[in-house]
Amino acid sequence: MKKISHSPKETLQLGKSLGSSLIPGDIILLNGDLGAGKTHLTQGICYGVGLDEGSYIRSPTFTLINEYQGKLPIYHIDLYRIDSLEEIYSLGLEEILFNQGVTIIEWAEKLRSPKNHKNLILNIQDRIEINIEIVSESEREFTFNTFFPEPRSLPIYTLL
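and the corresponding structure tokens:
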């Protein structure tokens, strides 16, 4: 499913709507170029999960992992500075991924198996993948793909 956002405000609202429907253990994988809006979407997701809207949410480019407390724990991971699978494995992400929080991973394409790009490492199976394309200075195209054993209705299907 695809959605077009015409402004950062719409991107934030899209994230809030998605975040409001997340449940413990959900994993969100974000792919997109620099400046595509991954962190802005993440801000909205965090607010939708119940983080106070006055909270400062920043990309963990240098810290790699930020943790926030909404209605559920929120783990925001940024793999931009990671160069190898060995570095990913050394982060110990399994403990974060398979808990009762919500995990959001920027630059998730780095989790693709080098042997088969359809597969993800770290045994990530159930997930929401969001690809973000820059359409113009203010417009972004979001492509949502869900991978769950049973279909789930997400409010993003009715937005924008």
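(Above: one complete record from the training split.) The chain has one domain: 2-149.
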